[in-house]
Design goal:
Structural class: alpha+beta
Strand order of the largest sheet: 6-5-10-9-8-7
Number of strands: 10
Strand content: 15-25%
Largest sheet: 6 strands, mixed
Number of helices: 10
CATH architecture of the domain at 254-380: Roll
Radius of gyration: 68 Å
CATH topology of the domain at 254-380: Nuclear Transport Factor 2, Chain: A
């Protein structure tokens, strides 16, 4: 609200006053500004009362309202036309959408069915191939028959059919073999069916048959050698090799026998007959394990034994080691191999009276190591 000069009487009046209190002219709603000086003028005035500027006649309210109405009508018409177009387009789209959806659904179903068909076909082919490969590892012809029933159109049909007939014949011969198993029978089966999966079983059967034969021979070296030649990687090959090695270790060579005889002859001829302590020391280790029942015997005990044989009329002792010498190899306390010897020794005593010679026959058992040392000895009549 502002206090202005009344455009008619020039008295002071409020712009919100209905009429001028001085002259009664209508004020509120009937004012306008001079475009030149900005003073308030009445709508009905054609000249500014302040500066005298000519004023344009005011536009009638009815005309303005009519003009605005026409513009509104035009705007409404445009909007209605646009809505109509949108509605028509929407109807067209709405009309085409179900058809496109149906076509898409049909295409999707076709692709889905096609994919499943090929997937299922591939799966069946894989199952068939796996079953075919498994048949190559079995000996029961019934599995072949089941394959033929399950896959009548298989590319392996003829091959499996032929394999089934072969397995049937093989099964019959196998059954006959088990009624009476012999080495010749097993070999004949292996020759008749060289590609049979039972070949490994036949090899094991031959292994057992040949091992029984070697055992029946008392485990002799020759039988063990034959078994190992036939089955170098057999079930009983390790056991056979151990037994053969044991026999070889226990076997005494002629050279070893000669060495043992020489050791005993030197001991009796020098250590006993001559009571030679140097010879006795050379014949034994530091101490003997036993000598004629005595434990841990040294050189002195041996010489004493020999000296006791020298009576006043005895002028000499003579010993002869027998030709028949029994030897076996034996494991010594230190883990090495030694020789257990049994032999007859003849003793002849020379006396001053030549008419009274004395002769004794002793049984000598001794244990001798590889260094030709006597570890144990017992002399008995």
């Amino acid at each position: 609200m502002s206090i202005i000069k009344c455009p008619e009487c020039r008295g002071q009046v409020s712009t919100m006053a209905g009429t001028c209190p001085h002259c009664g002219t209508s004020i509120s709603g009937h004012l306008r500004n001079c475009p030149k000086c900005g003073s308030y003028c009445l709508d009905s005035q054609d000249k500014c009362p302040e500066c005298g500027n000519l004023l344009e006649a005011p536009v009638a309210e009815s005309t303005l309202t009519s003009s605005r109405g026409e513009e509104a009508l035009k705007g409404n018409a445009g909007e209605q036309e646009q809505l109509a177009e949108t509605s028509t387009s929407g109807k067209k789209k709405k009309k085409n959408t179900p058809l496109r959806g149906l076509v898409g659904a049909i295409i999707f179903l076709i692709l889905l069915c096609t994919g499943y068909y090929f997937y299922d076909k591939q799966r069946l082919q894989q199952e068939e191939q796996a079953e075919y490969e498994r048949l190559l590892t079995v000996t029961n012809p019934d599995y072949c028959q089941r394959f033929l029933n399950t896959y009548p159109d298989s590319k392996h049909y003829e091959e499996i059919n032929e394999r089934m007939r072969m397995l049937q014949a093989e099964a019959e011969e196998w059954e006959q073999l088990h009624k009476h198993i012999t080495r010749d029978g097993v070999l004949r089966f292996m020759q008749n069916h060289p590609e049979s999966l039972r070949q490994r079983i036949c090899e094991d059967m031959l292994d057992s048959i040949d091992w029984q034969k070697a055992q029946a021979a008392g485990g002799e070296e020759e039988a063990l050698t034959e078994y190992l030649a036939q089955h170098p990687s057999g079930i009983h090959a390790s056991e056979a090799a151990e037994k053969k090695n044991a026999l070889l270790l226990a076997k005494v060579t002629p050279g070893e026998r000669a060495m043992l005889r020489g050791t005993l002859e030197a001991f009796f001829t020098n250590a006993i007959a001559r009571q030679d302590s140097v010879a006795a020391r050379a014949a034994i280790p530091d101490t003997m394990m036993s000598f004629n029942g005595m434990k841990d015997v040294g050189v002195e005990a041996i010489v004493k034994y020999a000296s006791e044989k020298m009576a006043t009329d005895v002028i000499g002792l003579h010993y002869l080691v027998g030709q028949q010498i029994n030897v076996r190899k034996e494991t010594l306390p230190d883990g090495n191999i030694g020789f257990a010897v049994e032999v007859g020794v003849q003793e002849t005593i020379s006396r001053s009276d030549t008419n009274l010679p004395t002769s004794n026959l002793y049984r000598v058992s001794a244990l001798i190591n590889q260094e030709q040392k006597i570890l144990r000895m017992n002399i008995s009549k």
